[in-house]
Amino acid sequence: MLSLVLWLACRGEQPAGDGSKDAKETGDSSPAGDTDDSAPGPDSAPPDTGGPDSGARDSGGDDSANPDTARGDTSSGDTAEGDTAEDIPSGDWIWVDAGDAMTCGIHADGSIECFGRDEDAIAATVPAGNFSQLQVADDFACALDTAGRVQCWGDHAPDGDLDALPDAATITVGSYGSLYALGLDGSLTQGADCPEAYGCGTAPSGTYVALDASSEFACALDSAGEVACWGNYAEDPPAGPFSDVDVCDYWDIECALDSSGEVVCWGEHLNEHGGSYAPPAGPFASIDVGVMYACALDDTGAASCWRADDSYWDYPVVDPPDYPFVQVSSGDVHVCGITTLGGMACWGLDIDGSTVPP
Question: Could you say which DSSP state residue 286 is in?
């Protein structure tokens, strides 16, 4: 789990039993399994910002090392030295999801492989099968197989009857055990309930095309481009239409792409802690919001990342490598992406190999 500094900065401690936001912000209780809170970085990790093996560029000596000016916007042309077409990582990855200190991906044959800190047995208990997508929470992961069925694993995986879920087109998970499935007909199903104290709410009726969950709330995009959010701390979204939606894994920061591909974000925590680092100008084709980073891809696959929460001023933003990507996933303090050649590149703070793909 994250150290006290980072935990209070964006994610907060687990709420007290009454589910109040004050308890969440003050951190009266700590999640089970927390390690040395006096350590300088997340999960007791040193501020290692990745190296050549991870596809990340070293932040030392560039603008991103200055937290007062860094934004991580690659539109300025700052790219990693040697990032030519010949250097683009290649492989057989088709999906990636970055979590806390763990990253999981899916290979072209549908198999799942995870790397990083495995204190919750996510990597050790990966299910066999043929999968098309997955999501990693703090202490468990869930994946959707090619038949539209959901499987979850890890130390605190949802224990609901997953076999009762209808065949799904998309799934999303929250860190306190919530699971939502977007059915093939566009309907939302809540596959598991998070603890009552966290107030994750109930999925609304309607027809949707995309969704994403935080620890205590979720948002979904309907076929008309309007966003609906529900659960604890969910803020009413601005009027659309939007083309994509994503939320911070812990705090109430929600972002979407408007009809022109520009990033629009809202949420109480964003107003309090995210005002110093505005998103770069688009247009973009997709967006993924993590705890420290938010990243977006334009229609060429170029990634632009920025600091999602300016509480992280102690940790320099690391610019993404100059590769064309088909997907990026922002975790707590690191980002991983799949290149157009099927390779995986990761950047940000490395925790026990979470930015070093196998």
Answer: E
The SS3 of residue 231 is: strand
Residue owning tokens 């690391």: 318
CA distances from 231 to 40, 218, 236, 356 (A): 32, 7, 11, 35
Parallel/antiparallel/unpaired status of strands 188-192 and 242-247: unpaired
Round to whole Å and give the CA distance between 239 and 261: 15
Measured torsion, CA atoms of residues 76, 348, 93, 243, in degrees rounded to the nearest 10 = -60
Report the alpha-carbon distance of residue 221 to residue 89 in Å, rounded: 32
3-class SS of residue 129: coil
* Assigned CATH topology for domain 4-348: Methylamine Dehydrogenase; Chain H (2.130.10)
Tokens linked to 298 = 């334009």
Q: Is the dihedral of CA 10, 331, 263, 242 positive or negative?
A: negative
Tell me the two tokens of residue 234: 């969910």
Report the distance separating Cα 119 and Cα 297, nearest Å.
Answer: 31
Q: What is the pTM of this model?
A: 0.75
Q: Which residue has the tokens 């100008």?
A: 281
Q: Determine the Cα–Cα distance for residues 341 and 192; give it in Å rounded to an integer.
A: 36
pLDDT tens-digit readout, 255-287:
899 999 999 988 876 666 555 557 889 899 999
Place of tokens 């107030």: 199
The percent of the chain in helix, strand and coil, each rounded to the nearest 5, is 10, 30, 55
**Using an 8 Å Cβ cutoff, are 272 and 34 in contact?**
no
